[in-house]
Design goal:
74% of the residues lie in helices and 0% in strands. With 121 residues, the chain is mainly alpha-helical. The protein has one domain: Arc Repressor Mutant, subunit A (Orthogonal Bundle). It starts with 10 loop residues before the first helix and ends with a helix. InterPro entries: RNA_pol_sigma-70-like, RNA_pol_sigma70_r4_t2, RNA_pol_sigma_r3/r4-like, WH-like_DNA-bd_sf.
Length: 121
């Protein structure tokens, strides 16, 4: 990004950033859960760690299969944690249009996730 002019940000770059952000999120969530289990005197290991990994793999596959506009909006809003007005600004949309986009993106993600979750993995 220090080059002049800065390189163009493309879908591949966004997907790479999303992968890293998603991995960071899972690590952070696992550390938090581990700490809560320790505090409450519960077993430190989850009952079935493969369930968590399968869920993560399905979520990653679903995210990758979404269209770039849905994927980008979801990544910015939920993985990067940006408020809707910032997402709108980055996507060059109005706040209202971005909210509508997020509704459609969440619906597409949920439908695809449920479809993939139901298949034999």
């Amino acid at each position: 990004m220090r080059r002049r002019p800065p390189p163009e940000v493309g879908v591949a770059w966004l997907v790479g950033v999303a992968r890293h952000k998603l991995a960071d999120h899972w690590r952070r969530a696992e550390r938090e859960q581990r700490g809560l289990r320790i505090v409450h005197g519960l077993p430190v290991e989850p009952e079935d760690p493969w369930d968590e990994r399968l869920d993560a793999m399905i979520a990653q596959e679903v995210l990758a299969a979404l269209g770039p506009h849905h994927r980008g909006a979801l990544i910015l809003r939920y993985l990067d944690g940006l408020p809707v007005p910032d997402v709108a600004r980055l996507l060059g949309r109005t706040v209202h249009a971005t909210e509508a986009l997020l509704v459609r993106a969440r619906k597409a993600f949920r439908e695809n996730y449920e479809r993939l979750e139901g298949r034999d993995v």
